[in-house]
Design a protein that fits this description.
8-stranded parallel sheet, alpha/beta
């Protein structure tokens, strides 16, 4: 068993990552997509906190067609680790020149003319890019009214000789809430834009819009590729998706009890005395806090799993420590294992208790928490 972060191997808090669960969830995505649709798993943000290199190796071995990251640095890290399948930069090239991207075989998404000229003028040989269009997210992407102008630029071989268009994408804004209304409007607009683009570029390889929510409902629209993200990590973007119940949790974030004490009625716990004992209470201290990614918003509202039972978080979560009330759980002792989220305590539920989403919790597990990998035979061998 290996750890990515040997500098912190003595604290008992850790995030166990089950790579066989990644494989299982990828197969669910394949079933949802169908045989004709390519899968482009999203491994940005350190694979949503799970460790980008082991997860990318696992997905490469599982048959992923393309891997999606956000930044050039994330793509370079994967290339230097031996990942050889195509890598797409969803957030664009930033300041990376064309020759740097070409050297590492990274495919940038572009969404304005300035990027086109920047890459073209810094290239010595051809580089493929994907064009992002804005179908309603209003974040990144060329507006439909500007698309003709952008397509004409790519067709102008006097100006653009080396940067080649290889795909088109957009991003769904509300698919986790409803596939009707605004989401259907995005699908319809993407279909219209795809037809427009194909008149000028009939041989583009990739059209992709569908995310995890769209995949789980098997509503992919006109796409020949899809980008599964959160579903690969065992969390459903919404409880209503029936297919989401087949997903397996990937991360088991856990720790151990390092202190036990009994306090009297009226005594307070942690900063600010925000929780006071209404009875004689047994308080356990956990060596994990918001510096590890166990959020302060869980103060007095979160729950952990101990001996198969839920125990409430009491008092404010501290930078390095969290307190729980174990009065109602028998035979609790020092060193007992405690689940912060994972099997038996889904991360979606923990996120809901603090008014956020599972993405934020998973991505927020900090670098000082060791990632430990189960079923490492699931990863692709390094080249």
């Amino acid at each position: 068993m290996k750890s990515q972060h040997l500098s912190n191997q003595f604290r008992p808090s850790s995030a166990w990552v089950d790579l066989s669960a990644i494989q299982h969830n990828f197969k669910i995505a394949q079933q949802c997509a169908g045989a004709e649709v390519k899968l482009m798993p999203v491994v940005k943000a350190n694979a949503y906190g799970h460790g980008s290199v082991p997860v990318a190796q696992c997905l490469q071995k599982s048959g992923a067609d393309v891997l999606c990251v956000a930044t050039p640095e994330e793509g370079i890290q994967l290339r230097e680790a031996g990942i050889h399948i195509p890598i797409l930069l969803l957030a664009g090239p930033y300041g990376a020149k064309g020759e740097v991207l070409r050297h590492y075989q990274l495919t940038p998404c572009i969404f304005n003319e300035a990027q086109v000229y920047f890459l073209e003028n810094s290239l010595k040989a051809p580089l493929v890019c994907h064009l992002k269009v804005d179908t309603g997210m209003h974040r990144l992407g060329v507006l439909p009214s500007e698309l003709k102008k952008m397509l004409r630029l790519f067709q102008d071989t006097q100006k653009i000789k080396k940067l080649k268009l290889g795909g088109v994408l957009s991003h769904l804004a509300q698919a986790d809430e409803s596939l009707k209304g605004p989401t259907q409007e995005q699908f319809d607009l993407f279909t219209k834009l795809e037809k427009q683009i194909k008149k000028s570029f009939p041989h583009l390889q990739h059209y992709h819009l569908a995310n995890s929510a769209a995949l789980l409902t098997q509503k992919l629209g006109p796409c020949n590729a899809a980008r599964p993200g959160i579903m690969l990590y065992g969390a459903s973007p919404a409880k209503k998706f029936k297919k989401g119940k087949e997903l397996l949790p990937v991360m088991h974030f856990k720790t151990e009890i390092i202190s036990l004490k009994t306090i009297d009625v009226g005594e307070a716990v942690s900063y600010g005395a925000t929780w006071q004992a209404k009875r004689k209470s047994r308080i356990a201290v956990l060596p994990v806090g918001y510096a590890d990614g166990y959020r302060r918003h869980l103060s007095n509202r979160g729950e952990v799993l101990l001996h198969g039972r839920r125990a409430p978080v009491v008092g404010r979560v501290c930078m390095d420590l969290t307190m729980i009330d174990v009065t109602d759980i028998k035979k609790v002792k020092l060193g007992d294992s405690v689940t912060l989220w994972g099997p038996g305590l889904p991360v979606e539920g923990v996120a809901k208790s603090m008014g956020t989403i599972s993405y934020e919790l998973l991505c927020g597990v900090s670098a000082r928490v060791p990632r430990l990998y189960k079923n490492e035979d699931c990863v692709a061998p390094l080249l």
